[in-house]
Amino acid sequence: MLFMTWTIAPEPFDSPTAAELWRAYYTEVSDRWYLLHEGRRTDPAELEREIAARTGTELAPPGGQLLVGRYEGTPGGSAGVRLLDADTAELTRVFVCEELRGRGGAALLVAAAEDAARALGARRIVLDTRNDLVEARALYARLGYAETAPHNDDRYAEHWFRKELTGLLS
Protein backbone atom coordinates (compact mmCIF):
# COMPACT_ATOMS: atom_id res chain seq x y z
CA MET A 1 0.00 0.00 0.00
CA LEU A 2 1.36 3.43 -0.98
CA PHE A 3 1.31 5.97 1.87
CA MET A 4 0.45 9.50 0.77
CA THR A 5 1.71 12.40 2.85
CA TRP A 6 1.07 16.06 3.58
CA THR A 7 3.85 18.59 3.87
CA ILE A 8 3.16 22.02 5.33
CA ALA A 9 5.39 25.04 4.88
CA PRO A 10 5.23 28.84 5.03
CA GLU A 11 4.20 30.50 1.79
CA PRO A 12 4.24 34.17 0.78
CA PHE A 13 0.67 35.48 0.96
CA ASP A 14 0.99 36.86 -2.58
CA SER A 15 2.46 33.80 -4.30
CA PRO A 16 0.58 32.23 -7.22
CA THR A 17 -0.11 29.15 -5.05
CA ALA A 18 -1.54 31.27 -2.24
CA ALA A 19 -3.68 33.19 -4.74
CA GLU A 20 -5.05 29.97 -6.24
CA LEU A 21 -5.93 28.54 -2.82
CA TRP A 22 -7.48 31.86 -1.68
CA ARG A 23 -9.67 31.92 -4.80
CA ALA A 24 -10.82 28.32 -4.19
CA TYR A 25 -11.49 29.01 -0.49
CA TYR A 26 -13.34 32.28 -1.03
CA THR A 27 -15.39 30.90 -3.92
CA GLU A 28 -16.51 27.93 -1.83
CA VAL A 29 -17.46 29.82 1.33
CA SER A 30 -19.11 32.65 -0.59
CA ASP A 31 -21.12 30.28 -2.80
CA ARG A 32 -22.20 28.26 0.26
CA TRP A 33 -23.49 31.43 1.94
CA TYR A 34 -25.35 32.71 -1.13
CA LEU A 35 -26.83 29.30 -1.95
CA LEU A 36 -28.10 28.95 1.62
CA HIS A 37 -29.44 32.47 2.01
CA GLU A 38 -30.37 33.56 -1.52
CA GLY A 39 -30.50 30.37 -3.59
CA ARG A 40 -27.76 31.49 -5.98
CA ARG A 41 -24.01 31.44 -6.39
CA THR A 42 -21.82 34.48 -5.85
CA ASP A 43 -22.05 37.12 -8.56
CA PRO A 44 -18.76 36.83 -10.52
CA ALA A 45 -18.06 40.59 -10.34
CA GLU A 46 -18.61 40.59 -6.58
CA LEU A 47 -16.37 37.56 -6.21
CA GLU A 48 -13.55 39.31 -8.10
CA ARG A 49 -13.92 42.49 -6.02
CA GLU A 50 -13.80 40.61 -2.71
CA ILE A 51 -10.85 38.43 -3.71
CA ALA A 52 -8.93 41.54 -4.81
CA ALA A 53 -9.89 43.47 -1.66
CA ARG A 54 -8.69 40.77 0.73
CA THR A 55 -5.09 40.43 -0.32
CA GLY A 56 -3.83 38.69 2.81
CA THR A 57 -1.15 41.25 3.71
CA GLU A 58 -1.98 40.60 7.39
CA LEU A 59 -0.55 37.09 6.91
CA ALA A 60 2.94 38.38 6.15
CA PRO A 61 5.76 38.30 8.69
CA PRO A 62 6.52 39.70 11.16
CA GLY A 63 2.92 39.75 12.45
CA GLY A 64 1.45 36.87 10.50
CA GLN A 65 2.12 33.70 8.57
CA LEU A 66 0.41 31.84 5.74
CA LEU A 67 0.95 28.10 5.55
CA VAL A 68 0.28 25.89 2.55
CA GLY A 69 -0.32 22.18 2.75
CA ARG A 70 0.77 20.04 -0.16
CA TYR A 71 -0.47 16.51 -0.63
CA GLU A 72 2.18 14.49 -2.43
CA GLY A 73 3.58 17.80 -3.66
CA THR A 74 0.32 19.26 -4.96
CA PRO A 75 -1.02 22.38 -3.20
CA GLY A 76 -4.13 21.25 -1.38
CA GLY A 77 -4.86 23.53 1.56
CA SER A 78 -3.96 26.56 3.60
CA ALA A 79 -4.14 28.11 7.05
CA GLY A 80 -3.10 31.53 8.23
CA VAL A 81 -2.41 33.25 11.52
CA ARG A 82 -2.07 36.90 12.39
CA LEU A 83 -1.38 38.63 15.66
CA LEU A 84 -4.29 40.61 17.08
CA ASP A 85 -2.24 41.71 20.09
CA ALA A 86 0.93 40.58 21.85
CA ASP A 87 -0.74 37.47 23.31
CA THR A 88 -3.49 36.64 20.82
CA ALA A 89 -3.34 35.27 17.28
CA GLU A 90 -6.26 34.74 14.94
CA LEU A 91 -6.58 31.56 12.87
CA THR A 92 -7.94 32.25 9.40
CA ARG A 93 -8.20 30.85 5.88
CA VAL A 94 -8.27 27.22 7.00
CA PHE A 95 -9.11 25.36 3.81
CA VAL A 96 -8.57 21.97 2.21
CA CYS A 97 -9.49 21.36 -1.42
CA GLU A 98 -12.59 19.21 -1.67
CA GLU A 99 -10.87 16.32 -3.43
CA LEU A 100 -8.31 16.04 -0.59
CA ARG A 101 -10.66 16.21 2.37
CA GLY A 102 -10.74 13.29 4.77
CA ARG A 103 -6.98 12.72 4.52
CA GLY A 104 -5.92 14.53 7.70
CA GLY A 105 -4.77 17.76 6.10
CA ALA A 106 -7.02 20.12 8.05
CA ALA A 107 -5.81 18.96 11.46
CA LEU A 108 -2.18 19.18 10.30
CA LEU A 109 -2.72 22.70 8.94
CA VAL A 110 -4.32 23.85 12.20
CA ALA A 111 -1.47 22.31 14.25
CA ALA A 112 1.09 24.06 12.04
CA ALA A 113 -0.82 27.33 12.40
CA GLU A 114 -0.82 26.92 16.19
CA ASP A 115 2.96 26.42 16.06
CA ALA A 116 3.29 29.55 13.90
CA ALA A 117 1.18 31.50 16.43
CA ARG A 118 3.44 30.30 19.26
CA ALA A 119 6.50 31.35 17.25
CA LEU A 120 4.93 34.82 16.90
CA GLY A 121 4.64 34.93 20.70
CA ALA A 122 0.92 34.24 21.03
CA ARG A 123 -0.40 32.53 24.14
CA ARG A 124 -3.89 31.98 22.74
CA ILE A 125 -5.52 31.60 19.36
CA VAL A 126 -9.02 32.67 18.34
CA LEU A 127 -11.15 32.24 15.23
CA ASP A 128 -14.62 32.83 13.92
CA THR A 129 -16.82 30.80 11.61
CA ARG A 130 -20.41 30.49 10.41
CA ASN A 131 -23.38 28.25 11.16
CA ASP A 132 -23.26 26.58 7.74
CA LEU A 133 -19.59 25.60 8.07
CA VAL A 134 -20.48 22.64 10.27
CA GLU A 135 -17.39 20.65 9.26
CA ALA A 136 -15.13 23.48 10.43
CA ARG A 137 -16.95 23.79 13.75
CA ALA A 138 -16.61 20.04 14.33
CA LEU A 139 -12.88 20.18 13.46
CA TYR A 140 -12.19 23.01 15.90
CA ALA A 141 -14.11 21.31 18.71
CA ARG A 142 -12.20 18.05 18.05
CA LEU A 143 -8.90 19.96 18.22
CA GLY A 144 -9.63 21.49 21.62
CA TYR A 145 -11.13 24.84 20.67
CA ALA A 146 -13.89 26.09 22.98
CA GLU A 147 -16.75 28.26 21.81
CA THR A 148 -16.51 31.70 23.39
CA ALA A 149 -17.86 35.24 23.27
CA PRO A 150 -17.30 37.25 20.06
CA HIS A 151 -13.86 38.77 19.57
CA ASN A 152 -14.85 40.72 16.44
CA ASP A 153 -17.89 42.11 14.67
CA ASP A 154 -17.48 40.40 11.31
CA ARG A 155 -20.90 40.43 9.65
CA TYR A 156 -20.63 36.76 8.65
CA ALA A 157 -19.29 35.43 11.96
CA GLU A 158 -21.78 33.41 13.99
CA HIS A 159 -19.46 31.29 16.18
CA TRP A 160 -16.23 32.28 17.91
CA PHE A 161 -13.65 29.86 19.29
CA ARG A 162 -10.57 30.12 21.47
CA LYS A 163 -7.73 27.84 22.49
CA GLU A 164 -4.92 28.43 24.94
CA LEU A 165 -1.54 27.66 23.38
CA THR A 166 0.43 25.69 25.90
CA GLY A 167 3.47 23.50 25.56
CA LEU A 168 6.11 23.24 22.91
CA LEU A 169 5.85 23.49 19.17
CA SER A 170 4.35 20.38 17.57
| Uncertain runs | none
Q: Tell me about the biggest sheet?
A: 7 strands, mixed
Provide the β-strand percentage band.
Answer: 25-35%
Q: Mean of residue pLDDT?
A: 91
Classification by helices and strands: alpha+beta
Report Rg: 16 Å
CATH-wise, what's the superfamily? Gcn5-related N-acetyltransferase (GNAT)
Shape verdict: globular
Sheet with most strands: strand arrangement:
1-2-3-4-5-7-6
Helical element count? 4
**End-to-end separation:** 27 Å
Describe the structure.
This protein has 170 residues and is α+β, with helices and mostly antiparallel strands. It has a single domain, classed as 3-Layer(aba) Sandwich (Aminopeptidase). The protein has helices spanning 16-38, 44-53, 105-119, 134-142, and strands spanning 6-10, 64-71, 74-83, 88-96, 124-129, 146-148, 159-164. A seven-stranded mixed beta sheet has the order 1-2-3-4-5-7-6, with helices on both faces. Strand 3 and strand 4 form a beta hairpin.
